[in-house]
Amino acid sequence: MKVVFVFLCAIVGILAQNILVVEELKLQHIHDECQADPATYVDHELLHDLAANIDNPQVGAHMLCESTKVGLQTENGDLDFEMIKSKIALTVKDEEKVNFLVGECAIQKKTPQKTAINLFMCLDKNGVTYFHEF
């Protein structure tokens, strides 16, 4: 019985890693799509310090592009709380912490662009970094 349990745990662990790998590849593709569009292209150096570039319109356009394409925000810029929760849960296993992070980070700002930037910065600050480490 213990052997079966260990085997199942190993399979679950492998599947979880595969989900993250697929998700990271998807995010890389989304990033590349946003970079390929002149309207959402941004110099990579600006993305490394979002806080210093929060008012840069190109940074805002790029981050909104990524956020929308990954499903964190709708086409009109509203936050999709269930999708945000599901994406955070890919790397954060404690449901209480997931709910805390959604409440802490998923906050609608004055513009959809600022909402996207603040969402990514907050998640990064709280250790959920896979969203933008390309």
UniProtKB/TrEMBL annotation:
Per the record, the domain of life is Eukaryota
- The stretch of residues making up the signal peptide is 1-16
**Xref: InterPro entries:** PBP/GOBP (IPR006170), PBP_GOBP_sf (IPR036728)
Q: What is this protein called in UniProt?
A: Uncharacterized protein
Q: List the molecular function annotations (GO) for this entry.
A: odorant binding
Gene3D superfamilies recorded: Pheromone/general odorant binding protein domain
Please name the Pfam families in this protein's record: PBP_GOBP (PF01395)
